[in-house]
Amino acid sequence: MTHWLPVLVHTPAHSQVAGPLTYRSELALAAGTLVRVPLGKREILGVVWDAAGDPVSSLLDPEKLRPIAGSLDGIAPLTPAWRQLVTFAASYYQRSAGEVALAALPPQLRDLNTLQLARRLKKHAKTADAALPDHSNAIESVALTAEQAGAIARFDLEAGPFLLFGATGSGKTEVYLHSVQQLLARDPSAQAMVMVPEINLTPQLEARFMARFNPLYGDNAVVSLHSGMTPAQRLKSWLAAHSGLARIVLGTRMAVFASMPNLKLIIVDEEHDPSYKQQEGARYSARDLAVYRGRLEGAKVLLGSATPSLESWHHSRPAREGGRYVRIEMPSRIGANAALPLVRRVDMNHQPKKCVFSPPLLKAIEERVARGEQSMVFLNRRGYAPVLHCADCDWKSECPHCSAYRVFHKIDRTLRCHHCGYTERVPRACPACGNPDIAPLGRGTERLEEHLAELLAHVRRPNSVSEQWPEGEPVRIARIDADTTKLKGELQAQLARVHSGEVDVLVGTQMIAKGHDFRRITLVAAVSPDNALFSSDFRAPERLFSLLMQAAGRAGRDADISGQSEMWIQTFHPKHPLFEALKRHDYPAFAAEQLKEREQAAMPPFSFQALVRAEARTQEVAQGFLTAASAAAADMMEAEHILPHITLYPAVPMSMQRVANVERAQMLIESPSRAALQRFLTAWQAVLHATRQQPEGKGLIRWAVDVDPLAI
To answer: How large is the greatest C-alpha to C-alpha distance in the chain, in angstroms?
Structure first.
């Protein structure tokens, strides 16, 4: 008997193939089954999907349908809840279901042939049998603070979703561990998902979870899922989660789509972090999908942060005011004498002109070195200098392919574009006028490290007298940014040096400012944070406050030395309300002020937005496509009765207008109603596809919709 199977394959949104393709099969395969199917001249991976409504077999010519090439035996079908998650994500974020579903599966499932996959599954089965734990072991007992115990008690009693608002160093991670521990004690077959925003935060969390749970549930109890893993590692972790062998999945945003048939708990650490928003392809928010998935699968959801996103903070207001989340607060650091760092503001208007490190800050760092303590200095700009400049003719190191400057990297004498990657050697003289005296303009972390080493050259560390350094050893400075951690394992090695006390001053970008448990750091300094105060992006103050609060949280994490911990801010605007709130560590006051401004301006979370971005060889084509699509939307909106609820703004160039010789434009769509915005975007897809076929779309490279954008 011949069966007609709807199969999802990887098709991008602009291909106009949004739903499943129909294939024939001699066997009736359940929805969720992984299959290989022919598409054109290729054989690709697909997922048998749910049939939409009445079968249309009477309209199909069996002779014209291609048969499936085979199914992936040994892998259980993906669950209905997983398929529903994919369907929702594709619909809400305006992408094809096939693109979302296939991107969520490990790449090796697409690449391995049937024989290779059978070997992997056999190896997985052996691993599962060998990993059976010795149930005579016991989970370590950890004493909880009163705040931690109270948080866990509320988490047990209420349904959620929950927002855990805990100060840095208050022990949120232990709450996560204990919540998972209680879940598995009640139901040993249950699964938990723990998400972190960035790959570099995974190892330390993974170590704690493995130490806690592997002794009781086996060596495969905890697995990781993130883009830094090899394809083989990702497949192994995915199979462990899909089969139920893995009890806990730790991962970055991609983990929200992990196949976990017994999922009962989802934890999103540092839920405010913008890294949870995918910035290419299907631009989904993993945090928001985690909340949706929890509701879908009946799993509890716990969002944690010391500086929650304003959306989550707004949702966690009292239920009588319309709040949807339960807010749990842990305002105190762990330890009898533990305290949040004192915030010091240095008014740079009263400091020597062009000084990078003010004399008071430099003296404070020297004092830390003399006491054998560590300091951390961060600047969100890597490289030696953001621009190379000629004073004679005003030439600057612009990228020929982007609307950006190439950054000067002194260590390898290159000019490098951080947007398209274009790199060339530093010229011996100005390319425009021949002046040999070209100089760096501005500072990046590489130059900051060099300058700090010069300023601290006279300082010696205590208790390290040697023949080579009779008065003590020089200050040890380390830099951590994207340039120093390119090689595999380099980040872990650098962090290990900091943890072991082999570094006196750590210089870096925001990579070092969040999530790390540095026990010896007592001083954190932000040398140049003012740029974000006056950004055109309405989310910039929120991001800056969060970054500074997170950075401050790296200081004084050891209760014995927390009393002398400090956060230094060098600013030309010391009385700015953001810094006033930061000095008091008063996130609620900052959030209240920001939400008041957002409400007055009808900005999210009091309105809902989407961006349509277009890319072409010329700016005229990119903007012309968006303008034509906007004009064509008028009749559609009137027909759909959504005209009063939608605002389409004019097409404008993106802030980074040109990248890799591609011109980029965008158009903002706004609505006070999420439902109206979704209805408009769904109906507008056909208009966008039709506009691309018109003369206005000629020369267009691609277009994409970004729902709930984080950067405008």
So the answer is: 92
Residue 200's nearest CA partner among 475, 434, 512, 417 is 512
Distance, in Å, from the CA atom of 147 to the CA atom of 155, rounded to the nearest integer, reads 12
pTM for the whole structure = 0.91
Q: pLDDT tens digit string along 176-202? A: 999 999 999 999 899 999 999 988 778
pLDDT tens readout for residues 545-594: 999 998 888 887 675 666 788 999 999 999 999 999 999 999 999 999 99
Helix extents (H) in 355-403: 359-370
Residues 6 or more apart whose CB falls under 8 angstroms from that of 320 comprise none
For 170, list phi and psi in degrees, rounded to 5.
-85, -10
Separation between Cα atoms, residue 279 and residue 613, nearest integer Å: 12
Contact assessment for residue 440 and residue 381, using Cβ atoms and an 8 Å cutoff:
no
Q: Tell me which H or E stretch contains 415.
A: strand 414-416
Q: Return the amino acid letter for 111.
A: D
Q: In terms of Cα–Cα distance, which of 304, 208, 239 is closest to 265?
A: 304
Q: How far apart are CA 525 and CA 523, in angstroms?
A: 7
Q: What is the chain's alpha carbon radius of gyration, rounded to the nearest angstrom? A: 28
Torsion of Cα atoms, 276 then 277 then 282 then 286, to 10°: 40
**In the 8-state DSSP scheme, what is residue 666?**
E
Q: Give the pair of three-digit tokens for residue 334.
A: 């762990």
In sequence order, the 6+-apart residues with CB closer than 8 A to the CB of 96 are: 11, 12, 13, 15, 17, 18, 19, 90
Bridge partners (DSSP) listed for residue 416: 407, 423
Beta strand spans in 49-188 (E): 70-71, 162-166
